[in-house]
Amino acid sequence: MVKRQKTESPAQTKKIASGIAKNILEGKLPPVVALEGELGAGKTTFLQGLAESLNIKEKILSPTFVIMKKFKIPEGPFSFFYHLDCYRVGNSEEVLGLGFREIIRGNNIVAIEWADKIKEILPQKTLKLKFDFLDRKTREIKYSSII
Ligand code: ADP
Ligand code: MG
């Protein structure tokens, strides 16, 4: 399945994210989400929308010095939301060292920015989102998943 959606604002990007969150909660999309796209393409903005629709009150930021942040999901079928940003990651070993395999095996939603850096350790059932910068306010989000 490949879908593409244009968004004209951060709010619209968050709305697309909340639709995807709903599908993850209903088991229609996998809980591991890989985000690709250049700096400023909207990956973190998308994850702010995703976290909001999971009722996480803390603000999702671009974790500059930490690779991974963990948030409790207050209700529903999943326990934690993990936000990884692999921008500064050199290789997959670094992420494996954080317990990545246990995290994706657990009852968690896991979103990974710059996921192309750790391609070889992503599960087969990963929701892949690609963000393209069209102009100052416009982004295109392409997504595909095997489930
Ligand atoms: P990334 O995590 O991919 O580096 P961010 O989400 O941190 O990107 O930043 C995206 C920037 O682009 C923000 O400053 C946001 O306000 C701006 N922006 C403008 N239009 C959009 C849009 N349609 N969707 C998402 N972000 C947008
Ligand atoms: Mg980011």
- Radius of gyration, in Å, reads 14 Å
* SS elements, strand count: 7
Secondary-structure class:
alpha/beta
Major sheet: 7 strands, mixed
**Which bin fits the share of residues in helices?**
25-40%
Number of helices: 4
**SSE pattern, N- to C-terminal:** EHEHEEHHEEE
Characterize the structure shown.
The chain has 147 residues and is an alpha/beta fold. The protein has helices at residues 10-25, 43-53, 92-96, 100-105, and strands spanning 2-7, 32-36, 68-72, 80-85, 108-113, 127-135, 138-145. Strands 1-7-6-2-5-4-3 form a 7-stranded mixed beta sheet. Helix 1 crosses helix 2 (43-53). Adenosine-5'-diphosphate is lined by residues 7-10, 12-13, 37, 39-45, 62, 113, 131, 137, 139.
